[in-house]
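Side project, low priority. Logging it here so it doesn't get lost.
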Amino acid sequence: MFRWLNGPGSNFRGPLPGSTNYLGAYDRNGQLIRSKREQKPQAEGELDAAAPVDDELGSLDGEGASKEMNIAGGMELARETLEDLRPFPLNRQFRSQHVLSEELREEIWKRVVQVGKSVKVVSAELGVEMNRVGAVVRLKSVEKEWAKKGNTFAAPYASAILSMLPQTPYNANAPSPHESINDLPTHQATVQQIFHPVAESRSFTRADSALVFSPTLLPADQRIPHPELIGLEKERLEGVPREERIRRQRERTAAETKTREEKEARRRAREEKTVKRVRPAGGRWEFRFTDVRVEEAGRDGRGVRGVGSRYGIPNEDRKRGQVKIPTRVE
């Protein structure tokens, strides 16, 4: 043990700043692997496990993000690779995931709260998923509220934990995407098994597939969190200038925001007409009553407006004895 402490383990007495300093980043002699790694030519199509992590995610507009360098002790080091993100040497399959840096979280809060941008726009600009943007805004608001009240923070502890994890930095000129922001969410209507026969001569698209699952289900291109990115990419491939693309996107965003606000206003007005509110005198709670009709559940009892529909009704596609193979072709 003391041989290791005086040998390779001596690197961890003075951790390398700007690096995770995991055991997997050093060899048996205590030398940093990425500092001595030489660039080797690769065959076409071959994946490199030591490629920088952020290179797997391109920029939102098709332009590669610039590689950052860590400078420590006068020595310039390349960014951490996948090999450097293994905290447990015996578990080769586990890699530590990147977290948002403090600067990036502060920038997210400023753009949403102070500038007034929507969560969707900030997500596309900084490459952070919309749910994470919302969580950052809520937590930052609580943090600043605590600061106004004079509450104390465990800043040294938070700084120490962040230094042990790989972080996504904030670069105002070329933001590095933190994660995939356009993953298709799983819709409840798509979890059932459906055997749908189609003629070989027919063109079957994603829109047709959505209609098979449900008549009201939108295609995958419209259900992704950022469908506008598809239009931006098509315009880029068509050779539309960058300034023109930005102008068109701003117009589309403004029109979409206006439509969403009008729809929300109509929903609230309709709710006010149908919901009866009762607040007892001196009470803290408000009771809301909504008229319900049995016919809204439909003939099969599966209507979405029926009572109890929110709890879900199991599909019978995996039930024993059910005929799953199509018996006719339409």
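Brief comment: The two ends are 74 Å apart (CA to CA).
Revisit when time allows.
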